[in-house]
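One record is given unchanged without comment:
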Amino acid sequence: MVDFRSLEIFYWVSQLESFSKAAERLNTTQPAVSQRIAALETELRTRLFERSSRSISLTEKGRVLVDYAERFLRLRSAMLEAVATPEAMRGVVRLGVAETIVQTWLSRFIERAHAVYPNVLIDITVDVSPVMRDALVKRELDLAFLLGPVNEPNMSNLDLGSYALAFIAASDLSLAAEPLSRRDLLKYPLITYPKSTYPYTFLREILSIPEIGSPRLFSNSSLSTIIRMTEDHIGLSVIPPDVIRAELAAGKLRVVETEVALPDLAFTASYPMAMGGGIAGPLAALAAEVAREDRAGELANKRA
C-alpha cells in the first residue's frame, strides 16, 4: 500500500524538482528519497519522473499523482489541526524574517511558539523582503514575515500590521530649520534599506529634483548598522521609529520633522498553501496575535 511518507516525499520532489532539495526539506537523506521514489514507482508499476543528468520532470502519470498526493496531504494536515494537540505537531519550519520584525517582536514570537509547539523546530533566516518573496514561491521557505502581501497563486497572507517610516537623526546633529523641505533633505546623506526594497526606491523617486540632482542614498541590509551610522552622524536614516524605541527613550536619536510624507511599511505572515500550509498556518496566526499585542503595548506606552 502507498503510505503517506512516500506521497509526501514524492510531492516535495515534484515541487522542488530536486531529490536533494526534497531531502533537505524533509530532514532526510538524498539516498532515502531516491529509494522511496524507486519503491513507489515499482509499486505503481509506472515511471513518475523523467531523469536526466541535470534535471528531473514529472511524467504524465506523475502529474496525475501530484494532484492526488496534494489532496491526501491536505486532508492529513486538516485532520491533525482539528484533532491533534499542539504538542503532537512535529517538524522543521523554515522561517524568513524581515529585520524590522527582528528588532520589534520576533523574540516574543519565538518564545510563544516554543511554548505552544514544543516539538516544532524553527529555522530562522533574516533577509530582505524581495529575496524572501522569491524563496516562498520556490518553496525554499515555509513561512515569512515580510513586506507583503505576496500576490502569487496558492499563497496565504495574514496581516501583521504596519510601521510608520520617519527621518531619524542623532539628537545632537545640527540641521536646517524644521520641517525640512525636499531641497533641505538633499543636503544630507540618507541611510535606509537595500536598493531592492520599497523605501529605497520611494526615496530615490520622491527626492530627485531635476535641477539639483538625486539624493545620496546609503543602503544597508542591517538595521543595527543603519542605527549605528545614524548615531555616528553619517547622515539621516529612514526607518520606523518602532525599531529604535530604546534609542529614542535614551535621547540618542530623534525624529526629524519634514515636509515629505513617507509611506507606512505593511507586513504580512505569508506562506504557501500546499498541504493546507501545515504548521505554517497556525504559526502565522500566532505571529499575527503577537504583532497585535506589540502594537497595543506600544500604544499604551505612548498614552502613558
User: Anything to note?
Assistant: The domain at 88-163+266-303 is CATH 3.40.190.10 (D-Maltodextrin-Binding Protein; domain 2).
